[in-house]
């Protein structure tokens, strides 16, 4: 589980709540009609703007920001190097008995096509389509959050206008002007909080996670094609190391595993 996402939201709410509490009663910032206008309006506008399929996709990819943890690319590359070594020494069919223990569906399907002697261009086409669809799903989820980040401040302003209209109708009672004005501004506060503490950061997190996941899939794709081509494991190592940041390349080494079986892939 990615605790940083949850920690960021909770810590933001906590710090804002503490600052409010130090300046006065925190209950003054709670107003149910303002919540209904801001949050309810944002959800309603989102339902109008997006088809149900996009909303369902958004719910599916949101867990990426909170739950899913990506594999370490360096570890994946080390495993691909060992698979390349096994295939070069014993033949591509030797990989067949190892497929059942590969947890990643993308890597397993790619290697299965290699074992089945599929054409390299066909393998590339299928796996690149898979990557493109992954990006499309993540992009759809980000669009929903980015739109909600636009709607929530707008509905906060609508709530403020509603509150101001109600306040102006009570100008004959000066004692009610101050509290009414405070309630009117609360909706703008809610809209800004939702946009800048929840929706925009979640969209950003999905963009970062999507970029990392796509990079991991591209590493797997190049590794799979190198294995099928019968490339020397050292060549596979150098080719895949190029995908990593310089600081992470030291964790990739064919020599350190040359006499070992691939972790988790033993027969």
Report on the architecture of this protein.
The chain contains eight helices and no strands. The C terminus is likely disordered. The protein folds into two domains: 30 residues; 237 residues, no CATH class. With 267 residues, it is an all-alpha fold. It is elongated, with a radius of gyration of 26 Å.
Helix count, DSSP H or I runs of 4 or more residues: 8
Which oligomerization state do the chains in this entry correspond to? single chain
* Shape category: elongated
Q: What is the count of structural domains?
A: 2
Give the helix proportion (percent range).
over 70%
- Rounded radius of gyration (Å): 26 Å
Query: Which spans of ≥5 residues are poorly predicted at pLDDT below 50?
Result: 259-267
What is the string of helix and strand elements? Answer: HHHHHHHH
Question: What does the main sheet amount to?
Answer: none
Structural class: mainly alpha
Q: How confident is the prediction overall: mean pLDDT?
A: 84
* Count of individual beta strands: 0
Strand coverage percent: under 5%
Short recap of the structure:
This protein is mostly helical and 267 residues long.
Task: Please outline the helices and strands.
Blueprint: H1 3-23, H2 32-49, H3 52-66, H4 73-90, H5 105-115, H6 120-168, H7 177-229, H8 233-241
Helix pairs in contact: 1-7, 2-6, 2-7, 3-6, 3-7, 4-7, 4-8, 5-6, 5-7, 6-7, 7-8
List key phrases describing it.
disordered C terminus, mainly alpha, 267 residues
């Amino acid at each position: 589980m990615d605790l940083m996402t949850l920690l960021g939201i909770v810590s933001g709410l906590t710090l804002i709540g503490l600052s409010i509490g130090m300046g006065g009663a925190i209950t003054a910032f709670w107003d149910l009609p303002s919540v209904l206008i801001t949050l309810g309006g944002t959800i309603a506008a989102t339902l109008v703007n997006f088809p149900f399929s996009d909303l369902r996709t958004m719910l599916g990819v949101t867990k990426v920001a909170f739950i899913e943890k990506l594999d370490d690319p360096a570890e994946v590359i080390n495993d691909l190097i060992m698979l390349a070594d096994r295939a070069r020494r014993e033949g591509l069919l030797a990989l067949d008995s190892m497929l059942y223990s590969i947890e990643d569906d993308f890597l397993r399907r790619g290697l299965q096509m290699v074992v089945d002697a599929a054409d390299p261009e066909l393998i590339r086409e299928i796996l690149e389509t898979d990557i493109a669809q992954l990006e499309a799903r993540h992009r759809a989820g980000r669009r929903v959050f980015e739109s909600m980040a636009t709607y929530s401040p707008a509905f906060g302003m609508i709530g403020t206008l509603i509150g101001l209209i109600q306040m102006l109708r009570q100008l004959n009672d000066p004692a009610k002007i101050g509290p009414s004005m405070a309630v009117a501004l609360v909706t703008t506060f809610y809209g800004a909080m939702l946009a800048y503490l929840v929706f925009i950061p979640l969209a950003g997190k999905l963009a970062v996670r999507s970029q990392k996941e796509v990079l991991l899939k591209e590493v797997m794709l190049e590794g799979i094609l190198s294995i099928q081509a019968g490339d020397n494991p050292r060549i596979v190592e150098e080719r895949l190391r190029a995908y990593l940041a310089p600081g992470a390349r030291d964790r990739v080494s064919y020599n350190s595993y040359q006499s070992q079986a691939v972790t988790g892939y033993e027969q």
